[in-house]
Amino acid sequence: LPYLRFPPSRAAAAAAATSAGSPPRSEVESAMADAKATTAVTLRTRKFMTNRLLARKQFVLEVIHPGRANVSKAELKERLAKVYEVKDPNCIFVFKFRTHFGGGKSSGFGLIYDNLESAKKFEPKYRLIRVWIGSSSHGASLRCLV
């Protein structure tokens, strides 16, 4: 019956690959090849604005990451530092990231301060503690920021 056919199993696919002359790929090799193919991350900035009063650049950051759950904030800071030629990555703050339904795309906000002093002056204390620039009076716990 043609409607009861199942797709070929992995063993059958491996046998077909060996008969074709190419060596079969192991599970690890195929997983690594898939991971390399899906690691392309695209950054787009929208609503870019230079705010001279607060000594910073501010923007909406769209991250397109097909095949990945999300991108770490440290990786985003590193990529933004390269693109905008920032000397100190501690001057970059990214926050409020939300992954869109279906995955593959996230949006959030980004701030790039001109120097660390202006970041300490204008950034909220909880964000400074989050990146270990500021200090809390009760230790390094975020819960003690009342």
Q: Can you offer a commentary on this structure?
A:
The chain has 146 residues and is of the alpha+beta class. It is built from five helices and four strands. 31% of the residues lie in helices and 25% in strands. The protein has helices spanning 10-19, 27-37, 73-83, 116-122, 125-130; strands at residues 42-51, 56-64, 92-99, 105-113. Strands 1-2-4-3 form a four-stranded antiparallel beta sheet. The protein has two domains: 2-37, no CATH class; 42-144, Alpha-Beta Plaits, CATH 3.30.70. The N and C termini lie far apart (70 Å).
The first-level CATH class of the largest domain is given as: Alpha Beta
Helix and strand succession? HHEEHEEHH
CATH topology of the largest domain: Alpha-Beta Plaits
Unreliable spans are none
Describe the secondary structure blueprint for this structure.
Elements: H1 10-19, H2 27-37, E1 42-51, E2 56-64, H3 73-83, E3 92-99, E4 105-113, H4 116-122, H5 125-130
Antiparallel strand pairs: 1-2, 2-4, 3-4
